[in-house]
Amino acid sequence: MGYDLLIAGGRVVDGTGSPGLAADVAVEGGRIAAIGQLSGAEATRVIDAAGRVVCPGFVDIHSHCDFILPLPDQAEFLAPFVAQGITTLVVGNCGYAPAPINPDTAGLMQAYTAFIKPRDLEWRWRTFGEYLGYLDEHGVYLNTVPLAAHGALRIAAMGFDARAPSAEELATMKRHLDECLDAGAFGLSCGLIYAPGMFASTDELIALATLLAPHDGIFTSHVRGSSETLLPAAEEVVAVARAAGVRVQHSHLEAFGKRFWPQVVETIALHERARAEGIDHGFDVIPYTAANTTFLAILPPWSLDGGVPKLLERLADPADRARIRRDVEQVIPEWPTWRPGTWPHNLVEATGWENVWIMWVESEENKACEGKSVARLAEETGKDPFDVAADLILAERGHVTALYLGVSGDLEHEWALRQILEHPSAAIETDAFSLGRGKPHPALFGSFPKVLGQYVREERLLTLEDAVRKMTSLSADRFGLADRGRLREGCWADVVVFDPDTVWDNTSYLDPDEPPSGIEHVLVNGTSLVEHGRVDTTRLAGRVLRAGA
User: CA–CA separation, 253 vs 14, rounded Å?
Assistant: First the structure.
């Protein structure tokens, strides 16, 4: 029998955690056709995988690529993902998604998402279903698993108002969420350290999450804080699951700031108690001790009431600016965080200005700031660190991203990160966004190779089989992707071939855009997008996946 492709002589690690075995893998019609000793088989093309590992394509359970997928040059931005073996992206995380769009608040959406997309979108859709239809029509580079996003729902219903929704506004959010779920969203995400998500109460989240149950949708949460409020924030995820009767995912479990690293152990124990109670609870992890996100995350909630335009007015007003400075320097987060005057996560208080690095600014005028900490910029300019931050936000109209060091470790210590990584429920992710500018997070290029090279081969924190499981079937199963995330006859042929002796993350925080070593071949639905380490950006081989389809 002739096949389209034969991957011959490799060590097959099937993604389930089972021991690897010597076998060949045959691909026909975009799917896995056979696995075993196929030495007599004929194929149009053969990949010699001797000395290599053959495993399922990696599932990035937490990415932010949904603002890239509509672009005609999406493949150029997504190339770093496939180059590290990623074949499926879960998008719509942390409350950020490109739909629904309310024309009256579309400007707020553009400003809200400026840090996470290469350029402004034209919003050629209004509903979530129209967004997915647009992707279907134009094609996607990688498989795409979409989530509805609480931030987008709230902006469509009530803009950036720092208050509870009215009954009518909550009904509007529910109507939008129903449309998202009917269109194929796999669940609902929220980002509770970001405006407008930070303004929502637990009751609001439960009211929305209840709609997920009939669809078997998952509720994912960037929790309300990873420092003083980490434990109650983690418990809130459990409370939503308990009240709404839904599966939940604690997005990028972490403890931020050295004095809070020990709380990782307590948070994992909380997770275990929830599972013992019968709650379907999972979590994921970025394999680095730094995270990147909008620079606006350093600011108190009230300053973001009304969105970025109102923030800029407040920073330009001496009295409001002084109040913002006082909050950044003095306010300690406390629970519940959504009450007026409280704060979910004071990032500067938790880690210090020296651990907040500017990674991207929009204007050429301030490009020299990229790759430098706010503390260093303060030394260079002779200004107070807060004034450096406030002036930069004003100059860039809020279009600034930052890297925050001190996430479950630092440049010298990774004890807390390792506690998370080695847990059986910890799925590997990137949490990355690709802008083609500035300095990205190293995870954009190296997240999965870092685990395979550092934590499997060098440190032996994980076995190869378990690491691959955390990158593939564990994430696929959280979203009910029965024919992804494993090498099995009949599954889609998302496949990675890598050299276990050379696979490595070549990035650093200051030199973060180096491609990895050792990832030699990557197939997406049977189409080869990486051959001998070279990435092909000419073919849109992915599929838009829909819940229940």
Answer: 26
Q: Identity (one letter) of the amino acid at 259? A: R
> Residue 515, SS3?
coil
Q: Are 221 and 229 in contact (CB under 8 A)?
A: no
What sign results for the dihedral spanned by CA atoms 273, 275, 280, 286?
positive
Residue 343: per-residue pLDDT = 87
Comparing CA positions, the residue from 404, 440, 190 lying closest to residue 298 is 404
Q: Length of the chain, please?
A: 549
User: Rounded CA gap, 495 and 505, in Å?
Assistant: 19
**Cα radius of gyration rounded to whole Å, the chain:** 22
In CATH terms, the superfamily for domain 57-289+415-481 is Metal-dependent hydrolases (3.20.20.140)
Angle between helices 385-395 and 308-316 (to 10 degrees): 130
**Which string of DSSP letters, residue by residue, matches 128-146?**
HHHHHHHHHHH--SSEEEE
Under a CB-based contact definition with an 8 Å cutoff, are residues 253 and 224 in contact?
no
pTM of the model as a whole: 0.96
Residue 522 bridge partners (DSSP):
496, 530
Instruction: Find where tokens 């994980």 sit.
Output: 462
Domain ranges of the chain: 57-289+415-481, 295-405
pLDDT attached to residue 395: 96
What DSSP designation does 268 have?
Answer: H
Q: Which residues contact 119 (CB under 8 A, 6 or more apart)?
A: 71
Signed CA dihedral, 266, 235, 225, 81: sign only: positive
d(CA 99, CA 468): 33
Integer CA distances (angstroms), 484 to 42, 164, 276, in order: 25, 40, 27
pLDDT for res 437: 85
Instruction: Name residue 129's beta-bridge partners.
Output: none
| Tokens representing residue 103 in the block | 């024309």
Chunked mean pLDDT (size 10), the chain, 549 residues: 93 98 98 95 96 98 97 98 98 98 94 91 96 98 98 97 97 98 98 95 98 97 96 98 98 96 97 97 97 93 93 97 95 91 90 94 93 96 96 95 95 95 98 90 97 98 98 98 97 98 96 96 98 98 95
Amino acid identity of 159?
G
For residue 248, give the amino acid letter: V
What residue spans of 365-463 are helical by DSSP H?
Answer: 374-381, 385-395, 415-421, 443-450
User: 519-524 and 372-373: which strand pairing?
Assistant: unpaired
Q: What token pair was written down for 21? A: 């075995």
**42: burial class by Cβ within 10 Å (0-12, 13-18, 19+)?**
exposed
Q: Which residues are registered as beta bridge partners of 411? A: none
Helix (H) or strand (E) holding 327: helix 318-330
Q: Is 198 helix (H, G, I), strand (E, B) or coil?
A: helix
Rounded to an integer, what distance in angstroms lies between the CA atom of residue 530 and that of residue 322?
52
Half-sphere exposure of 73 (CA within 13 A, CB side): 9
- Largest Cα–Cα separation, the chain: 79
Give kind and range of the element (H or E) at residue 86. strand 86-91
